[in-house]
Amino acid sequence: MNKLLVLIPLAALSACVVQPKEGSETLRVVGDNHQCEVIAAVYGEGANGTKEKSRAREGATNQARNRAADAGANAIYFEETRSKVWGSMVLAKALRCSQGQFEAMPRI
Question: Right CATH number for 2-104 from 3.30.110.70, 3.10.129.10, 3.40.50.300, 3.40.30.10?
């Protein structure tokens, strides 16, 4: 019975992928050579479902983007993605860049 109580929430999590919030889709993805102000370190987590790991990575990426947008960022730098049996984790920096900084950077 105790095992069932643990498995039910995990199964529910595996069926869901965090969706992007309004505004998070417009964040510009930049490389590590950015000259932008770091306003927050953000992360995202996604649980592996029964289908594929890419859905877990998608959910983790969306969650990190949502958190960066909530922090007031206009750009994001993805530092690391970790994928394990249980799911994926994305580590990123939420950035605030000026228009001049955007123009000087190559698009990723």
Answer: 3.30.110.70
What is the C-alpha separation between 17 and 2, in angstroms, rounded? 26
pLDDT digits 0-9 by tens, 1-28: 444 344 444 444 445 678 888 888 899 9
Q: Rounded to whole angstroms, how far apart are CA atoms 87 and 93?
A: 21
Tens digits of residue pLDDT in 39-48: 999 999 988 7
What element of type H or E holds 91? strand 87-96
Q: pTM for this one?
A: 0.78
Q: What angle do CA 51, 62, 69 make, to 5 degrees?
A: 175
The candidate with the shortest Cα–Cα distance to 46, out of 32, 33, 31, 57, is: 57
- Taking alpha carbons only, the member of 91, 76, 74 closest to residue 29 is 76
